[in-house]
Amino acid sequence: MDRDGGFVGRMDIVETGRRRRWRVAEKIRIVEESLAGRRRASATAQCHELPNSLLFK
Q1: Could you write out the three-class secondary structure of the chain?
Q2: Domain coverage including residue 38
Q3: In this structure, is residue 38 part of a structural domain?
Q4: Tens digit of each residue's pLDDT (9 = 90 or more) over 3-54
Q5: What is the rounded distance in angstroms from the CA atom of residue 28 to the CA atom of residue 32?
Q6: N or C: which end of the chain has fewer CB within 10 A?
């Protein structure tokens, strides 16, 4: 209801995005890849579509 006591005609539900579930083996592989030194951690994060901050915690 709005302030005047009437009903709102329509409400849209907006999703914030997908939420992925990672297996432990996948997490370990990505972290090892970022620590291997062949490329920057930010490039590894981008390759796996992760925010950079997840590899810098």
Answers
A1: CCCCCCCCCCCCCCCCCCCCCCCHHHHHHHHHHHHCCCCCHHHHHHHCCCCHHHHCC
A2: 24-55
A3: yes
A4: 666 666 777 777 777 778 889 999 999 999 988 988 888 899 999 989 988 8
A5: 6
A6: C
